[in-house]
Amino acid sequence: MQLALSLGARGLGNTWPNPAVGCVIVRDDRIVGRGWTQPGGRPHAEVVALSQAGAAAKGATAYVTLEPCSHHGKSPPCADALIAAGIARVVVALTDPDPRVDGGGLAGLRHAGIDVVTGVCEDAARRSHSGFLSRVQQGRPMLSQKLASSFDGRIATGAGESQWITGPDARRVVHGMRARHDAVLIGGATARADDPELTVRGQGAVRQPVRVVLSRGLDLPVESRLVRNLDHAQLWLVHGHTVGDAKVQSWEALGARCLPVLGTSTGLDVLAVMKALAEQGLTRVFSESGGTLTASLLRAGLVDELIGFSAGLVIGADGRPSIGDMSLKRLADAPRFDLQESRVIGGDVMHRWVRRAG
């Protein structure tokens, strides 16, 4: 199952709206087939592994990181494929809460006389499928918030200079993180100030994440790197309902996709934003937002993972903070995260935290 989980992880950022599943088929203590969900979400992991196993699948055991699907979508049910191949035993890490499955795949396998075991490496599978689970169960994507800051938590000098606080090794790791998410998210202020590309570079041929920019009034520069890269990376612009049709149509004519959501007096309703992204199929979002938007996401309880890159320089109180005003009166009201890992990346320190349960 651990091998199946590692295989499934290869699909992270490439399979949305489908989960990134891994499958290993074993017969007589020998691996005869293995697979993971392919880019675009199909073929599914089980189909890839069965194709590799061929006739050797008969009487074998299949290890799958998520319950095999039992509904007819754009491809036939994987549960039916396992049955037709003559699989004798299926070991599943995690049941699928999608209402179209939700135990139906396991029931179909058992009805066909297949021995089914569940809950193997369940915690690891829950982490691996956290984005898919968040979309199905909470109606929003899982959100990773990246912060690259000075030792004293600043992302730019008072004059706005920010490139580069962290070193090339840290930036290379960030590109790998982008590749494992469905989308990269920033606010309009960051888009205007930094003119970023938000693409994955230096990682070989990869499926580019969707670039998502939040701008209530769609007041973004047309002459930008985001627009110049539209030929190989999608651009979604999330804006308020009050934006005129002419402005929306001009952006759509350039190739961007415009998503209207509920606005507030100061910006966009970030919960409405995340729900809109989930409705479009996104499961994992990598936020590289500035301090104001980051604070809004934290206040709304939408940040599932904090990833910090801390550099060995000090900017001082006149620098721009990595996180804006949280309006906290008590420490008890501060969002808490638990450390998962920390390591040296070149001349910087990376530390990753997950939101504390409860």
TrEMBL record:
What molecular function does GO assign, one term? diaminohydroxyphosphoribosylaminopyrimidine deaminase activity
**What residue stretches are annotated with the CMP/dCMP-type deaminase domain?**
1-116
Keywords of the record: Hydrolase, Metal-binding, Multifunctional enzyme, NADP, Oxidoreductase, Riboflavin biosynthesis, Zinc
Q: In which pathway does it act?
A: Cofactor biosynthesis; riboflavin biosynthesis; 5-amino-6-(D-ribitylamino)uracil from GTP: step 2/4; Cofactor biosynthesis; riboflavin biosynthesis; 5-amino-6-(D-ribitylamino)uracil from GTP: step 3/4
Q: Where is the active site?
A: E46 (proton donor)
Reaction(s) catalysed (UniProt annotation): 5-amino-6-(5-phospho-D-ribitylamino)uracil + NADP(+) = 5-amino-6-(5-phospho-D-ribosylamino)uracil + NADPH + H(+); 2,5-diamino-6-hydroxy-4-(5-phosphoribosylamino)-pyrimidine + H2O + H(+) = 5-amino-6-(5-phospho-D-ribosylamino)uracil + NH4(+)
Protein EC: 3.5.4.26, 1.1.1.193
One of its GO biological process terms is: riboflavin biosynthetic process
Which sites bind NADP(+)?
A: A148, W164, T190, D194, G290, G291, T292, L293, T294, A295, S296
The family database entries (PROSITE patterns) matched by this protein are listed as: CYT_DCMP_DEAMINASES_1, CYT_DCMP_DEAMINASES_2
Q: Which InterPro entries match?
A: APOBEC/CMP_deaminase_Zn-bd (IPR016192), CMP_dCMP_dom (IPR002125), Cytidine_deaminase-like (IPR016193), DHFR-like_dom_sf (IPR024072), Eubact_RibD (IPR004794), RibD_C (IPR011549), RibDG_C (IPR002734), Riboflavin_Biosynth_HTPR (IPR050765)
UniProt lists the family membership as follows: In the C-terminal section; belongs to the HTP reductase family. In the N-terminal section; belongs to the cytidine and deoxycytidylate deaminase family.
Q: What does this protein do?
A: Converts 2,5-diamino-6-(ribosylamino)-4(3h)-pyrimidinone 5'-phosphate into 5-amino-6-(ribosylamino)-2,4(1h,3h)-pyrimidinedione 5'-phosphate.
- Please name the NCBIfam families in this protein's record: eubact_ribD, ribD_Cterm
The identity of this protein, by name, is: Riboflavin biosynthesis protein RibD
Species name = Qingshengfaniella alkalisoli
Q: Lineage of this protein's species?
A: Bacteria, Pseudomonadati, Pseudomonadota, Alphaproteobacteria, Rhodobacterales
